Amino acid sequence: PMYFLLSQLAAVDIAYACNTVPQMLVNLLRPAQPISFAGCMMQTFLFLTFAHTECLLLVVMSYDRYVAICLPLRYSTIMSWSICITLAVTSWTLGILLALVHVVLLLPLPFCGPQKVNHFFCEILAVLKLACADT
Questions:
Q1: Is 62 within a domain?
Q2: Where's the G-protein coupled receptors family 1 profile domain (predicted)?
Q3: Which of 32, 71, 79, 96 has CA 20 to 30 A from 105's CA?
Q4: CA-to-CA separations, 60 to 5, 11, 17, 67, 102, in angstroms, rounded
């Protein structure tokens, strides 16, 4: 189970980097290239999904290590493959749902003024600074 969870964490880290690095490279090669609103929302959603999923997978991995150290005789019973897969799928599902909540709350806000994000990618705080409403 430990290596399965490590592979899940590695996949999240790769996806996390693949979400932020391309836009950063575009901004380095061609400065002042704006990103569309839909692209910004998609990048924010993916960024939040991978961030939440990474945190939840770290929680699952810490529980796995706790059971392995404190309850070694019952480890194989407690952390069976079905439980391990269920915990990993739950981490991904909750990561997606939590990110969806953030984006759904962000979409109805009115945006005005300069539509430029002063970061190399669209993170939620940079997008909130563009909102006209009281956040």
A1: yes
A2: 1-135
A3: 32
A4: 8, 15, 22, 11, 23
